[in-house]
Amino acid sequence: MNICNVKRRPVKRRYDTTSRQQAAASTRQTIIDAARALFISQGYARTTMADIARAAETALDTIYAAVGTKQVLFRALIEAAISGTDRAVPAAERDYVRAIAAEPTARGKLEVYARALRPIHERLAPLLRVLKEAAPAEPELAELWQSIADRRASNMRRFAAELAATGQLRADVDLAVAADVIWATNAPEFYLLLVGDRGWSPETFERWLADAWARLLL
To answer: Model pTM?
Structure first.
């Protein structure tokens, strides 16, 4: 048998998607960064998808494929500001939530949360100003902010229960009141009042918030 005449089957190459996924993630992040800068500097209504495409140096169709419509893009910015990543992250999967769970004292839990809120608000507050300006003419954005506020309220009820489990809540403060107090004072609107309008430093806000919570609730 002449082995030279034996036909060899072509070797199938494994399709490596890693580089494609990395490129897609990089493109998405570039779009997110460009959109954030434009929304903050120009406002929501004055920023067009074409503006974002030019700033990101990509095609308009690429933005729709990678992220979505203008409203979806702004939602992605809000979720990224909350999570500190390029995507929404469920509360239970965030590092600071795990750190709160591991902290044995109620005051320690409050301090961990106040420390985590500072960078969240630094990212979120500029977008809140954009959203508040745009919401009257953009019902979807108003609904977005309400849904986030409702989600935050639900998370605070769980947080209040975790504080109560330490046995260190004041006897005259029930879970509903504790949750509402934390919900109201951890709002980015509250941060804007003290840091944006009254000139507090973010570090001062963090220290004051942890101390205020402890005085009110423990």
So the answer is: 0.79
